[in-house]
# Entry
Amino acid sequence: MAQSKKDNASQKEIKVRVAGTVIQTGQNTKYLIEIDVQGIKHKLIGYISGRMRQNYIKVAEGDKVVVEVSPYDLSIGRIVYNAKKDPARLAAQLAVRETEPEDKEV
Amino acid sequence: MSRKSLKTAAELEIIREASAISVDILSQIRAAVRPGVAVTDLDELAGELCEKQGVKPAFKGVAGKVPFPGNMCVCINDVILHAVPKPGQTIATGDLVKLDFGIIHKGFYTDHCVTVGVGKLESEDEKLIKIGKFAVESGVQKALAGNYTGDIGNTIETIAKLSGFDVLKEYVGHAIGRNLHEWPQIPAYGEVKTGDRLEPGMVLCIEAQLVAGDDSVVIENDSWTIRTRDGKNAVMFEYMVEVQEDGYRVLTDTREWPLIIDTN
# Structure
């Protein structure tokens, strides 16, 4: 199902975002990325999101990136953020917006 | 849609109260899990604790081919859910024990589930239980007003599949309230932006059953107990979540409980 541009630009993080490391740069702006879900490793091909491409954000080997994946094809993912070599920036990007309210009345 | 039941503030208050009791009872049941303990004993313990608190177990007498006979479901290893307590069945070291429990308090239901590993687990089981919890908790984080049920399912399925596991398609999460199962259904799979829109005031049971092998199941002769067809292990986690205007709130907060029970 194609998503409209407006949907992509909205603030809601709907797709699953996972942390990954670029282990190889390939041709045609494709990258081999190793992602890590709670210690379980998985390799996939990543491509750069249009927004990153428009802003000329480069991706190099060893960079830590955020990848959006879908359960329907686990062999590809969309790179939506490049934290370069900085794990802190990656963590900040993936941090959960803890909207859970504090216990007040109960 | 009129089928969606949105709870009023007074009703939410009762549900919160019920959830606190339910979590308290489940924590006591969890404390009783150790190698050698009989499943029927845990079931009886659940009944006793309910009586002490003045609440009714939610699962007893749930309509089916035969009404569900137990107070709770204690599912071990390849049994995924709805296990009827069998006399003589005991818990052994290395088992994955799913404790699925719910109560009725002042007319409102609760339903939640945790999986615990007993003693030293095999590495594959340890992975499964860890990912199962992480996947469902990630799904819970999508329970925001304006999101769709598909967003929750998509998150759970993606994380499960990336880790090499699969989710069951036959059994889904649900809303809860004066009935055990209410609309909307929340499958643990799906596409983003599909399904029903989440609205403030909903109380959801977000659950997923992760399996190590194939996702097909068999139902045993007692018409309740459900196993994986290939005999691989499964885990299940379930949280009751309240959707609010600007966030969510986990009512049955069992997230801090350790996954593995130390047998020493």
User: Anything to note?
Assistant: Chain B touches chain A through 36 residues (CB under 8 Å). The mean pLDDT of chain B is 91.
